[in-house]
Design brief:
This protein has 11 helices and 11 strands. It has about 325 residues and is an alpha/beta fold. It starts with a strand and ends with a strand. Bound molecules: iron/sulfur cluster. The site of iron/sulfur cluster (SF4) has 11 residues, from loops. Iron/sulfur cluster (SF4) binds next to loops.
Length: about 325
């Protein structure tokens, strides 16, 4: 049986103990694809609230004010630092003894977490790294929101011994797909950006989506092969699903989008995992929304059911995830 390098296995090798990623979704952050800087309306499937219930916690204090990287000052910083502390405390309260978790990575998850004044990023990252047992950061972002200032800041943490990951949303390597899904960026310069990130000692995780409109299985596998050829340290793959209040929901209702089936998705995952080198960490192979905002496909309602099927399909091919 071939063992894929899962998050658990990677952290055990790296730190000798269990490490839990603590998801943080800070109010006040947005995305240049939402605020009109590169596009309006965001990706056609984007509904960050449905991915991150934590955003609702302190939402009213923020009055819908959003920050961006061009601001010289951030009037929300104190509120965001409070939000960070509350969410970290909330998520770690169960892990003390029960699960024998030794250390934490703080995962800045929702929206574009490098799209803020550099002083804000420094304050948030410094604070997260100062929490007890935090060994590093994982930061979700876009390829058009990481410049040398951000890399300099993150490299500084690497030099101090922290484990730093940048999680880049790629989704597809096809320009037509990126346009159709309103990503607001193309693939130009992505390989160079990944190389620059890695050269600073920062780990690269690339996200892909399977089941984008008009993409064939061959195209999805080609996206993966291309991303792997860019020497990423990790991948996350998830199926595209339709949630209420998105452009994709309109396409689906108009009969212009057919979601991928669980069987086809699992077939693709099996083929994909055969391509992943031993030292590339596979951080995620599923996704779901366990509430009434999910429109389709219904198999995305329960991640556990999804993963049980995918794991059994992988195992029948001699791959353990
Ligand atoms: S890049 Fe991410 S946060 Fe921005 S619109 Fe797309 S899915 Fe939403």
């Amino acid at each position: 049986m071939r063992l894929l390098l899962t998050v658990g296995r990677y952290f055990k090798q790296r730190f000798g103990c269990k490490v839990r990623k603590i998801p943080i979704s800070l109010n006040g952050f947005t995305c240049p694809n939402i605020d009109g800087t590169v596009a309006k309306g965001g990706c056609i499937y984007c509904k960050n609230e449905s991915f991150s219930p934590s955003l609702a916690l302190n939402k009213k204090d923020f009055n819908n004010f959003k920050i961006n990287s061009k601001m010289s000052e951030n009037p929300l910083l104190e509120l965001q630092l409070k939000d960070l502390k509350e969410q970290f405390t909330h998520h770690t309260r169960f892990y003390k003894d029960e699960f024998n978790i030794g250390k934490y990575m703080v995962y800045f998850q929702s929206f574009t977490n490098t799209y803020a004044p550099i002083s804000t990023l420094k304050a948030l990252y410094d604070t997260a790294l100062s929490y007890k047992n935090v060994v590093g950061l994982s930061i979700g972002t876009r390829v058009d929101c990481v410049d040398d200032k951000v890399l300099d800041l993150l490299e500084g943490y690497v030099k101090q011994g922290s484990e730093i990951w940048l999680e880049y949303g790629i989704q597809s390597i096809y320009e037509d797909s990126l346009k159709l899904t309103n990503r607001g960026h193309g693939m130009e310069g992505v390989e160079e950006l990944f190389a620059k990130t890695s050269a600073r000692g920062i780990k690269v995780c690339a996200h892909l989506i399977y089941g984008l409109p008009n993409e064939s299985p061959d195209m999805m596998l080609t996206s993966l092969k291309t991303i792997l050829s860019y020497k990423v340290h990790s991948i996350k793959i998830h199926p595209l699903y339709v949630v209420k209040g998105t452009m994709l929901a309109n396409m689906y209702k108009a009969g212009n989008y057919t979601p991928i089936t669980l069987e086809s998705y699992a077939d693709l995952i099996v083929e994909s995992m055969k391509l992943v080198p031993e030292d590339v960490m596979v951080q995620r192979l599923s996704a779901g929304v366990h509430d009434e905002s999910l429109i389709a496909p219904k198999w995305c309602f329960d991640k556990n059911v999804q993963m049980k099927y995918i794991r059994s399909r992988l195992r029948s091919e001699g791959i353990d995830y």
